[in-house]
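ok, trying the design again with the full structure, not the truncated one.
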């Protein structure tokens, strides 16, 4: 991948949203692991986050994106 392609990708909304979602999942993993007193693993945290939090998280993110475009 060229530098121009890499910069285009990293600047894209899709990539920024991917990074934000990944960060939210890793934070959820940390909380689950702290509560369980062992590392629950990424897959378990991912499934838990998708089932319990993803819908609201995505709605909140979309609202923020749309609000920022109106100002």
């Amino acid at each position: 991948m060229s530098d121009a392609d890499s910069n285009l990708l990293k600047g894209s909304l899709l990539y920024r949203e991917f990074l934000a979602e990944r960060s939210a999942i890793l934070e959820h993993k940390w909380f689950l692991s702290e509560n369980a007193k062992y590392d629950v693993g990424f897959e378990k945290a991912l499934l838990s986050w998708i089932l319990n939090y993803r819908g609201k998280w995505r709605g909140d993110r979309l609202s923020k994106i749309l609000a920022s475009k109106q100002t």
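Keeping the full-length input from now on. The chain is about 85% helix and 0% strand.
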